[in-house]
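A quick aside before the break. I want you to see a complete sequence-to-structure record at least once, exactly as it would be stored in a machine-readable document. Don't worry about memorizing anything.
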Amino acid sequence: MADKVEFELVSPERLIASRAVDMVVVPGGEGNFGVLAGHAPMITTVRPGVIDMYDGDQVVDRIFVAGGFAEVTETRCTVLAEQAVAVAQIDRAAAEQEVRDLGEDVEDAKSEAERTTLEHRLAIAQAKLAAVEAGTAAAH
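That is the input. The structure line, written in tokens, reads:
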């Protein structure tokens, strides 16, 4: 097991994933980072994007996260996500509609605070749609 890293993904509702993997790639606040066994300890923010879990050189699971925090030790990577959903479970049409609706809501915002909140939600929706599109492109 020394060559594996224990990965846990937790959302406010439940434990999403808990497994030993060869590598996990996380969308960090300052860019994607890969975690292998023996990684230097760190805590960082997670931006909206996709977490890829690897067995060998194959991606075995892809999960979209809407942001959060990650803690990495030499043997473990734990991500506390605001929201998480398997990329395969994202409905592309619904994601496209959400981007359109939120884009309109941003334009109609009545205050700067409302606009800022809506722009954050729009960025998450756009990242979710990009995750679906990237998954579709990779499958072809």
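Two observations worth writing down. The first strand starts at residue 5 and ends at 10. The chain has two domains: 5-87, 90-139. We'll return to this after the break.
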